[in-house]
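Could you join me in thinking about how sequence relates to backbone shape in a protein? To get us started, please write out a protein record for me. Would you write everything just below, so we can both look at the same thing?
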Amino acid sequence: MKNLIKLGFAALLSMNSMTAKAQNTDIGKDNSLLWEVSGNGLTKPSYITGTFHILCSKDFEIKPKVWNALNKSENFVMEINYTDQSEMASIQKMMAADKKISEQLTPEEAENLDKILADYGTTLKNVDTHSTTALYSLVATKAIPCPQNEVKMYEIELLKTALQNKKSVSGLEKVDDQTYAISQAYDLKETISQLKLGNEYAVAAKKMTEAFKNENPKDLDQLIKNPKFMNKRQEKLVLTDRNKKWVEKMPEMMKNQSSFFAVGSGHLWGENGLISLLKAKGYIVKPVSSL
């Protein structure tokens, strides 16, 4: 069960929310999930790639241009530095709660939640001591339509190569930062509401996977920001506020080394996406079709 929670938490960080809007698969000039950052005093270009943290093996592919961009870079940057043992300890700590979930609910609410959790292959008793954030991470497991032994983690595959090539590795934020954002956006009541939508997440995940494979950042942005799954307040906490903090850290990273940033695809597009925020800082940010 703990592995399932951890898997869901990892997936959650890139998905956050989804909707079942129809996909537009037309190839536009901005259709890329790899972007080059240059100008504004940089002596070497850096790169940002949008990721889908966890995919089934049958859907998993890292395009040659992404590998080439990583190879050209000196520093590999993830949302969280998975090589930092203290961060891994924080994930473990994130799972526990000071107060049992059942103690925060009426008997009737607890019984209803137990019925909902049956659809996730678990019970309230099994997760009762977990935090609300850990409980919410179960939502993402509905979007992984294959067994745990058939999934691959996008950033981990990139990280393996970065370490083999002796690149420096760093993170844009701490586990505590992500946990805080999610816990503020989704309290226990909201988390239970999202768990009820599990099958809708599963349907939407298929569309999101197709948008990711088509490298369509606009469609991904639409998929992520449906009010059914993420209202404006939650969007601000989970996406906008974090993007704005990251974009303050990125210039120093790019100034010192050519950096390759791997972040959930939902952080790229839109008015408050990393692409727009970096352009506002004076950088040239352009899509990479081949490299």
The longest helix spans residues 232-256. The chain has one domain: 2-96+131-287. Residues 2-96+131-287 form one domain. The radius of gyration is 19 Å.
